[in-house]
């Protein structure tokens, strides 16, 4: 990337297409929202049905930390798999 005098940056490689980001319509039928709604309802039901007084603060913090670690691990694994398939863009 290069930066111009006014602080704007632009890609210098010609194989990067210019990208316009505009609002995209969500296509599909309303019944397609049933899946996400059911998952959210299950999460809310589980959270409200949990006896939180039986848990210690350390256990709750550990659950949250492990949840973050799982998401981070999935992201790193997925990015690694995608990047292995792409050609290297590093200068030779």
* SS-based class: mainly alpha
Q: State the low-pLDDT regions, or none.
A: none
- Quickly count the helices: 2
- Structural Rg: 22 Å
Count every beta strand, where a strand is a DSSP E run of 2 or more residues. Answer: 2
What's the quaternary structure here?
single chain
Cα end-to-end separation: 16 Å
What features would you highlight for this structure?
92 residues, mainly alpha, two-stranded antiparallel sheet, 2 helices
Describe the 3D structure:
It is a single chain. This protein has a domain at 56-85. A two-stranded antiparallel sheet has the order 1-2. Helix content is 49%, strand content 4%. It is mainly alpha-helical. A hairpin with a 5-residue loop joins strand 1 (2-3) and strand 2.
At a glance:
The chain has 92 residues and is mostly helical.
Please describe the topology of this protein.
Blueprint: E1 2-3, E2 9-10, H1 34-49, H2 57-85
Antiparallel strand pairs: 1-2
């Amino acid at each position: 990337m290069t930066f111009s005098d006014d602080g704007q940056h632009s890609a210098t490689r010609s194989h990067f297409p210019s990208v316009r980001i505009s609002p995209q319509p969500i296509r599909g039928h309303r019944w397609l929202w049933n899946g996400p709604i059911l998952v959210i309802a299950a999460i809310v039901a589980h959270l409200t049905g949990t006896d939180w007084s039986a848990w210690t603060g350390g256990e709750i913090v550990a659950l949250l930390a492990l949840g973050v670690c799982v998401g981070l691990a999935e992201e790193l694994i997925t990015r690694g798999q995608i990047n292995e398939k792409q050609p290297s863009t590093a200068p030779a």
